[in-house]
Automatic annotation (TrEMBL), chains A, B:
SUPFAM superfamilies documented for this protein: Stabilizer of iron transporter SufD
One Gene Ontology term from the biological process aspect of the record: iron-sulfur cluster assembly
Source taxon at top rank: Bacteria
Parts forming coiled coils: none
Pfam families: SUFBD_core (PF01458)
Similarity section: Belongs to the iron-sulfur cluster assembly SufBD family.
UniProt domain SUF system FeS cluster assembly SufBD core: residue ranges: 88-306
Name of the protein: Uncharacterized protein family (UPF0051)
Native species: Selenomonas ruminantium
InterPro entries: Fe-S_cluster_assembly_SufBD, SUF_FeS_clus_asmbl_SufBD_core, SUF_FeS_clus_asmbl_SufBD_sf
Length: 308, 308
């Protein structure tokens, strides 16, 4: 059993779907300290010598294993930057679950900045899930500034699920990826902001290798007076395929700025972008309301479906 | 008959489809001087007092009249900035044809920067055509940096056809529009670059009034080693509709950077964007080649169709 209080356990459930110690390799960080760690025969987790974070080394050919490295913070006024590096061996096929939950009932800001670097070996396959969540009724802000840097060797593939569930007051999210030949990246981002929250999310995906491909889809809902800014950039330097899509719902006095960009530097680069910002269509609301839902319930249903 | 040489007449034909003095109001500028001007009962063209350009005043209710203000330059080494203001009266319905052709056979750069401001009155309707063209085998560059600023009163509408035919070595195009209630703007831009040409085109359309709408479509073809950068920005500050689309073909070593942006500051703003960059599809070429065209001819057909 883990030594965690009820708040920490609730955060863990939100960000990593975990009730207790997960199967496979894991590192649980709570209030700035590791409170549990486990390696497996194929996955080794070690602290960096300077104490700035951890290294996760996954042996070549490792199949159907998972790594969980969730972070929970329940003290007000904490601020930390953690550097975690993932070395995924050739031909491995793994699931990596990160995520951070902050509960802040105090008056000081709490901030966790995770810098994750992924070195994905040839023909390796990674599914990466990162969930962010904030709770607590304190005036102190819940701040999360994740940086994700991905280097993908030939033939590798990665699927990223990047989710900000709710309760995060301020976030600046930076994701960079560099793809070699035949590598493929799929990103599904979901951002929900409410109150006076601010979210900035920036992607820069560079397709350097022949036949590399990227599909980056970001969906956002800005409620109340919240603000979102989205920068999705794809650069094609070879014969490659890139697609980005940015779909946003605004509600109340929410505001969204979407600035996608496509850069084709090679005649065989095929790049496509779509973006749409609007409110929930009136006829969708009416349909659900005729089924007996209130307007508020109908809105909630639609938003949940959109962000799923 | 106009006092123009053969080169100037050829340029005039390219940029304004004119063989001679047009019907209606006109101002023809050649090598920095007005070489012909005509006003009509409803459209008055006058020089600005400081000599920096002309004012075009169109009476309210003027229907089915046109204004031509083409510019031709055939001297190497000329550089001019001209300020032209258009005042379009309430309920008028007019066609305005601008455009600039530069023939440069010399070693010095030739540059024309036209700053056009449009004040479109309530319920007025404007069709605006602007064509840019360069020719001549001199080493001096043909440079065109147009600035277009549009203020649209309630219920007015404007359709802009902005075309860079060919031969323009360097261009920086800025178009800004501000729309009040029920105003509608349609933009069709066509940009062709070749050789080592550089084209930068920036649109900023602000929808301030209820039910304002904008539809901005830019099509570009970058051949040889040319480079295009496209910034299309729509800002929605009211219940409004905005659509931008950016379709580009790259050929040879051409490069294109598309940076559209959507900014929704009102819950009833509906904004949509699409962009695609790619080369001509192989099967399109093959289809035309089976009809007897060479690859070069097939490419030309497709590009011409795309830019029409």
């Amino acid at each position: 059993m883990l030594k965690m209080d009820e708040i920490q356990k609730r955060l863990l459930l939100e960000v990593a779907d975990l009730h207790d110690v997960p199967m496979g390799a894991y590192n649980l960080r709570a209030n700035g300290k590791s409170v549990g760690r486990g390696s497996s025969a194929n996955i080794e987790i070690t602290s960096k010598e300077d104490g700035s974070g951890i290294d996760i080394r996954i042996k070549p050919g490792t199949k159907n294993e998972s790594v969980h490295i969730p972070v929970v913070m329940s003290e007000s006024g904490m601020k930390e930057t953690v550097y975690n590096d993932f070395y995924i061996g050739e031909g491995a096929d793994v699931v990596i679950v990160a995520g951070c939950g902050i509960d802040n009932c105090g008056t000081q800001d709490s901030e966790h900045d995770g810098v994750h670097r992924f070195f994905v070996g040839e023909n390796a396959k990674v599914k990466y899930v990162e969930k962010h969540y904030g709770s607590g009724d304190g005036k102190g802000q819940r701040i999360l500034n994740p940086v994700t840097e991905v280097t993908m060797e030939a033939g590798s593939s990665m699927e990223m699920e990047m989710v900000q569930i709710k309760g995060v007051d301020s976030t600046s999210r930076t994701t960079k990826a560099n793809l070699k030949a035949d590598a493929s990246l799929i990103v599904r981002e979901r951002l929900m902001t409410h109150g006076t929250q601010y979210a900035y999310s920036e992607y820069e995906v560079t397709l350097d290798g022949e036949n590399a491909s990227a599909d980056v889809v970001s969906r956002g809902v800005a409620k109340d007076k919240s603000y979102q800014k989205l920068d999705l950039r794809i650069v094609g330097n070879a014969a490659c395929h890139g697609h980005t899509e940015c779909d946003s719902i605004i509600m109340d006095e929410g505001r969204i700025l979407a600035v996608p960009s496509l850069e084709a530097n090679n005649v065989d680069a095929m790049l496509v972008h779509e973006a749409a910002i609007g409110k929930i269509a009136g006829d969708q609301l009416i349909k659900l309301m005729t089924l007996g839902l209130t307007e508020k319930e109908a809105e909630e249903q639609i938003v949940n479906g959109f962000l799923k």
